[in-house]
Amino acid sequence: MLRVRGVVLPEREERAFWIGGEVLREGAPPGGLAGRNAETVVDGGWLLPGPVDVHTRPGAIDTNEPFSEGLSREQLRAHRDAGVLAVRTPGTAARMPAWVDEDRSCPG
Predict the structure, then answer these.
(1) By the 8 A CB rule, do 53 and 79 touch?
(2) How much of the chain is helix, strand and coil, in % rounded to 5?
(3) What DSSP state is assigned to residue 61?
(4) Which of 3, 26, 68, 105 is the most buried (most CB within 10 A)?
């Protein structure tokens, strides 16, 4: 269990978050002792909301399809519009075109 505490934007309110496995919770520590024994990894500072899509392959609907630049831009912008701040693409680094890092309208 990990604990993150800081000022959340845009509300500018101090909050605590608890991370256990793949679950993020806000408020009081969950699980009794597990919450009390959590490792604090951030205590203070600014916390920015935004999910991270940790498994996506922009540019194709299916892994067997060829890469499509137009579809990639569409999917990356959809992630951005949903609030994603960063996109990780496991197993696709070789096919990601350079414009992905240069296009400010796409999450990086």
Answers:
(1) yes
(2) 20, 30, 50
(3) S
(4) 3
- In the block, tokens 């309208």 appear at 105
* Amino acid identity at 60: A
CB-CB contact of 89 with 97 (8 Å): no
- Per residue in 34-59, is it b (16+ CB within 10 Å) or e — as a string? ebeebeeeeeeeebeeeeebeeebbb
69's tokens: 């630049």
pLDDT tens, position by position, 8-46: 887 899 999 988 877 888 887 777 666 678 899 999 988
pTM: 0.49
**CA distance linking residue 48 with residue 77, whole number of Å:** 19
